[in-house]
Amino acid sequence: MLLRILRAAALCSTALASVFTSPAQAAYPEKPITLIVPFPAGSGTDAVGRIFAAELGQILGQQVIVENKPGANATIAAQYVARAKPDGYTLFVTTNTSHSAAPFLMKNVPYDPVKDFTPIARGGNLPFLLVTNPKQPYTTVKELVDYARKNPGKVTYASGNSTGIVAGGTLAHRAGIDILHVPYKGTPQALTDLVGGQVNIMFTDLASGLPFVQSGQLRALAVSTAERSTIVPDLPSMREAGVNDFDLNSWNGYFGPAGLPPEIVTKLNAAINQIVNKPDVRKRLADLGFDAFSGTPESFAAFVSEQRDLWGKLIKDAGIQAQ
After folding, report:
1. Where residue 26 falls among pLDDT bands split at 50, 70, 90?
2. pLDDT above 70: residue 63
3. pLDDT per residue over 253-267, tens digit each?
4. What pLDDT digit, counting tens, does each position of 124-150 carry?
5. Other CB atoms within 10 Å distance of the CB of residue 102
6. CA gyration radius for the chain?
């Protein structure tokens, strides 16, 4: 009798232990998730992020709420996420702006792009276009470069993010021209002024710029990559257009704060890979100018470190000083 009681007590103890020691993540997610976007509503990352948020919500069975926190080269949003509780309910969709470029464009970045975040998954790439107001007297990159050489300091280039800043600086450096940088808080505002003629040229992501090109409000001169884009195959690459050693692409990916439990990372990574492999979603993203693909958290972590070094060199070569 005593033996049976002891055995029963041991079984109860084991059951209780399993309840109290099971990770809370087993039931994740139990409430809505917030996805922080470091750029304004209407930007390319915002448009893409909202598609991912809706799909992620369906897969996980919880609403994924998009919250925009733009400004300061995406560092406001990055700092917010870095300080958030690592429980999987605050996620970050960002680009090379916060993790590759900002540490070299700004003197004081309030976070470490590697140590303060948990890489979850790549989202894909967001190629950039070199666009101009159609009233300008150049219709090709060569004509733009020739005009800028004859009119030093008179061509203005807008930027709404770090890729735009670095792309403009790289164009000036590689082509040996003097063009004036006009920074904006976000891409939508910069595009508005470009269409209005307040500035002359701009490197913008396809998602934001392509509708203006298709409507005739802007003229596209080239894509920012070394090779042509499958999304806009008729546009020349910068190399084809005559600017050597020019290859800039904006990457997109998902992070959590440092210390995000492995179980949550695995679940979110699987969901994001599932999303990018849906043919209908890939088409919707391609229509926005977004090349969707993903991979493992480990490959993404290695990529982030590599890109930080690459963008540091690009910024140094372009002679862009940290502000």
Report:
1. low
2. yes
3. 999 999 999 999 999
4. 988 899 999 999 999 999 999 999 999
5. 24
6. 23
Q: Whole-angstrom Cα distance, residue 140 to residue 302?
A: 37
- Tell me the C-alpha distance between 241 and 196, whole Å: 26
Q: What would the mean pLDDT of 214-235 be, rounded to a whole number?
A: 91
What is the distance between the alpha carbons of residues 313 and 170, in angstroms, rounded to a whole number? 11
Other CB atoms within 10 Å distance of the CB of residue 226: 15
**Cα distance between residue 92 and residue 214, in whole Å:** 31
Phi, psi of 142 (to 5 degrees): -60, -45
Q: Band the pLDDT of 156: cuts 50, 70, 90.
A: very high
Residue pair 222/213 in contact (Cβ under 8 Å)? The answer is no
The C-alpha atoms of residue 294 and residue 55 are separated, in whole angstroms, by 15
Give CA angle at 127 (81, 159), nearest 5°. Answer: 70
Q: How many other C-beta atoms are found inside a 10 Å radius of the C-beta of residue 21? A: 7
Sign for the pseudo-dihedral over CA of 12, 18, 24, 27: negative
Strand-pair category, 156-159 with 180-183:
parallel
Half-sphere exposure of 265 (CA within 13 A, CB side): 21
Long-range contacts of 211-214 (CB under 8 A, 24+ apart): 212/131, 213/129, 213/131
Please spell the DSSP secondary structure of 306-321, one letter per residue: HHHHHHHHHHHHTTPP
Q: 209: closest CA among 192, 227, 196?
A: 192
Characterize 232-260 residue by residue with b for buried, 16 or more Cβ atoms within 10 angstroms of its Cβ, and e for exposed.
beebbbbbebebeebebbbbbbbbbbbeb
Q: What is the pTM of this model?
A: 0.79
